[in-house]
Amino acid sequence: MPRLRLALAQTNPVLGDLRGNSAQVVEAARAASAAGADLLAVGEMALSGYPIEDLASRPSFLRDAHNAVLRLAKELQDAGLGHLPVIVGHPDGPFEPRLLGTSNAPTAIAQNCASVLQGGHVKARYAKHHLPNYSVFDEYRIFIPGDELLVLRIKGVDVAVIVCEDLWRDGGPLGRVLEADAGVLVVINASPFERDKDEVRLPLVTRRATETDTIVAYVNIVGGQDDLVFDGDSVVVDGEGSILARAPQFEEHLLIVDVDAAAATDSDLPDSVARVTLADTPAAPDTTGVDVAVPPDDHEQVWNALVLGLRDYVRKNRFSSVILGLSGGIDSAVCAALAADAIGASNVYGVSMPSRYSSEGSRSDADVLAENIGLQYSVEPIADLVTPIEDQLGLTGVAAENLQARIRGGIILMGLSNMHGHLVLTTGNKTELSVGYSTIYGDSAGGFAPIKDVPKLLVWELARWRNAFAATRDETPPIPVNSIEKPPSAELRPDQTDQDTLPPYEVLDAILDAYVTRALGREDVIALGFDEETVDFVTKLVDHSEWKRRQGAIGPKISGMAFGRDRRLPITYRPTV
Amino acid sequence: MPRLRLALAQTNPVLGDLRGNSAQVVEAARAASAAGADLLAVGEMALSGYPIEDLASRPSFLRDAHNAVLRLAKELQDAGLGHLPVIVGHPDGPFEPRLLGTSNAPTAIAQNCASVLQGGHVKARYAKHHLPNYSVFDEYRIFIPGDELLVLRIKGVDVAVIVCEDLWRDGGPLGRVLEADAGVLVVINASPFERDKDEVRLPLVTRRATETDTIVAYVNIVGGQDDLVFDGDSVVVDGEGSILARAPQFEEHLLIVDVDAAAATDSDLPDSVARVTLADTPAAPDTTGVDVAVPPDDHEQVWNALVLGLRDYVRKNRFSSVILGLSGGIDSAVCAALAADAIGASNVYGVSMPSRYSSEGSRSDADVLAENIGLQYSVEPIADLVTPIEDQLGLTGVAAENLQARIRGGIILMGLSNMHGHLVLTTGNKTELSVGYSTIYGDSAGGFAPIKDVPKLLVWELARWRNAFAATRDETPPIPVNSIEKPPSAELRPDQTDQDTLPPYEVLDAILDAYVTRALGREDVIALGFDEETVDFVTKLVDHSEWKRRQGAIGPKISGMAFGRDRRLPITYRPTV
């Protein structure tokens, strides 16, 4: 059996930064070439970042991306790396519009491509067949599907190339991989992290490898892009389902592994398969061991995902520091610890903003947190700012409670952000967000919400995990025990606790899991054994909080293309050509 | 030729309100029956409202909608209207999931249906073939396409039934309409208003009628749903392209018209066409004239769309009053006039919030506006509220300017909203929104933005149009001439005008039209003749304002279903079963 040395580069692209992302590929190619690789693969859309959303309907963006691929081929050649076949993901176009509807409707003009570069040229190109259009994916909206399979002949081995979703669907290009009798299947991916996703993804890769009796080389991008976190976790599995190599999660990595693949035969290929023979690479030196990473446990994975999501949002949007309110409670404590892990404690500004209702315990919990972590820490009492407004407007009850939250989040943190350039973190968790237990333009103000998708019970679990993790490394546990153990309170009126208003978090999180995450209906949730009145209370809160969750005001659309519904753009976007 | 009396009901559904929307259909059937109609058609998703977004993935919602159709058939029968065939649009399901991707991915379980009710039963059902997935539409994400054509035989005429997008696509069910040789084609729609859309929609209907030599009866829903406004404009066109009847825009209406249709033949139908023969309706009395509405001019259409969008957002979300800041400028003046037209001046609360930088002119322009319109008017000076904060935090420059805007929008208007239950309107226009010329949590705070999609130049045009319209009716023109004619200013520092920071609006709006609405790239915009430096300045502002436009903080997603990217829900939603 011929032996191929595969290199999979887990890069962290910045969306829109074609020059910077190309440089990452050149860097990976340099290392892969030095290691004697016969083939380098980088992730789906590694050249543009992912997801590009409706930028795919902008012809100038596609032209830039197209030209960037040509330029990358030349740059590799100029760097003396022209011998190495490089498979790289990128958007391509503009193509003739695929008519989607009315004559004046936007139409797909892009394809989601994998290009093969060698000798200064683009030798072949594959366009993704299966376009996911569920959950976070909108690809049917923006891409034209491909319909040819690409097979590369490299050193006597046939290497088939597909993109991400193509691997998940039965039928389609996979059938042709079988017909083509390829020895290696390269899948380039932009597959976001989800809790427990490794329990789905790796078994799928393994199943595909054994079904087709082919070595599957799965390469994923890494990094945060707005609310998605790509976890890497690239892997190579052989036709018997054994893991030959596996990259670590949440960091850039070059995975190198030798595989013994079935030799190519000269059988006829179906019409829908293009075969491209590449020039041979030089003989390779011996390898020095193979990485077979083992993913850490659930809490560590989630923590790492949150840290990377936060770090990349800050970094890719060119901030260098963050500011957040420290209430003494568990949510802000966990967010501060995440921020310190992400960008270093000296770049994290914590502000305690006590009111007349803040307990002595809360103030000291915030002090202890700041001390534990080594944050930049200040105290801004709010009573003298709140009173004149309360008096002038005659605010009482909930309106007065909201006023306190708005002075803290909307006024103080945003004011300091505008003065000093910090990114404001808002510290609400998924449970609060689901039921609308927060003040709009108050504690919900900010550019990034580190624990937006973390239910309250998991916040506590993560706090305990992070403290225990510190202990194993002889470091100070960051989160004050008192913040973990005291009953949660918004402290907007005397002796308030969350459970004055909300069901116990054990019940609330379980109902939200059923109603929100699993999309069950009212009757189905009740059938799980929850109290009817509580289910109605919670589901009504969820249904009525949609505006709060969005915050941005909607308004009537009168033009062909309006911000909001029909213009979906990345927030983190750094155009370079 | 047999004569049929068609009734098209332009109803205004409330999303999720299955009982209330059913009652609208019964009401329309009562009127149609009294007028001797042989067939009543109401709009696409008239039973549920449109768009239902990811509610389509909730089995309980689909079960409720399915049962609501059965109940509606019974209610019509019980009301003595069982003889009248009623075609009504609704979501149906849950069906076996159509596999869309990974084993744990959400899958489409719904269809977008037209059901035919008669004699207390559902006699037939058609499922939409073509699922739009561009612009504001996400139907490929949530619906399973149908593949059969439905032909109803009514009083010797074959009536084909299709849904919305099916009419726009070449091929598909339209080809089968030709083969089936139907005399009438009923199209039920949920087609949102766009400026100049009547220049596309009516010609399409006319073309389809002449191509198929069939009478086309096009019925559309009406009303505001979040940022969409459905304009009605239902129409009946004969096989020669003549308009037989046309309903007015932006209001509920029952359109009744007699048509002489080709008699049905007993030719064989293709396998993919289902033919259902309905019981005859009683002989009809004579009609008393037919409505052939003529749409008003462009500015009046836009104004009416904005009024209806605002009114329905307020009403359907169960608010009864709105509050907005009156700066003396053109944007807030136009918003106040729109609000008064939408819900009556006595329900509109205008607040003037002068600072030390507010000119005497601005204050008196706000006074005059309030007087002209008859608003609920109050004055809340902000200097004494701003100073303590500015001093404590040491805010200067832009941070101090933003503070003023936040005290006005985030603190005063939101505080009064929380105290008195008014919906806060934010008065920014599309130009400001595009370039981020506003203060987040300040003037951009609020639940609804009446002119969010109106560029600045059009704001002025609409103001002039509304004043002229008042003059033609001997009413006081609402908008102070001075607000229209003075140079626009944010008045956040001495002698500030918008043009200190922004290009002239004539240039700015033209560049935004090219870059935003037409999605041209930088080079393409420059090629239109704009100055390179100005284009770069504007496009950078647009690219960097995406977060401001969204306002709601994003955060890393870690679960299978998170708020934000992969959970798309209506804001206006009133569930009843």
Give the secondary structure arrangement, pairings included.
The structure is a homodimer of 577-residue chains.
Chain A: E1 3-10, H1 18-34, E2 39-42, H2 59-78, E3 86-92, E4 111-118, E5 121-127, H3 139-142, E6 149-154, E7 157-163, H4 165-168, H5 173-180, E8 184-189, H6 198-212, E9 215-220, E10 222-225, E11 228-231, E12 235-237, E13 243-246, E14 253-260, E15 273-277, H7 298-316, E16 322-325, H8 330-343, E17 348-352, H9 360-373, E18 376-379, H10 383-393, H11 397-420, E19 423-424, H12 430-435, H13 456-472, H14 481-485, H15 505-517, H16 522-527, H17 532-543, H18 546-550
Parallel strand pairs in A: 1-2, 2-3, 6-15, 7-8, 8-9, 16-17, 16-19, 17-18
Antiparallel strand pairs in A: 1-14, 3-4, 4-5, 6-7, 9-12, 10-11, 12-13
Helix pairs in contact in A: 1-2, 7-8, 7-13, 8-13, 10-11, 15-17
